[in-house]
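Exercise 7.
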Amino acid sequence: MSFVVDASIALAWCFEDEQTDAVLALLDRVTETGAVAPQLWPLEVLNGLLMAERRGRLTPALRERFAGLLRDLPVTIDDETASQAWDGAAPLADAEKLSLYDAAYLELSLRRRLPLATKDAGLAAAAERAGATLLRA
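Solution. The predicted structure, written as tokens, is:
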């Protein structure tokens, strides 16, 4: 695992208007060395794709295609996310004024000592304050 990937990065891989050189470099990196994500990641990225379809940004066929591409990436789902919620993510969410969902990504990054890749400005700022290494996209 080379980094923690959040849903904002994964969804950016699916939308041309959100792709930058940095975003695409992270996609290359995940295909080469893998990444890790909390247990909520599949739910969050699938929900993002579903909402994009409902807003007319994707067709059902394209949503399914992107879902398959994301599913097949070498992203390991952390099996300790739920057990770390009480004493790890919840205090981070409180201290950094994050949603518990965003705090789960930060907790994972800190616990595994891996850089965090996110496009979320609030999560990025919290990661910097908490001493996590940040991969900006």
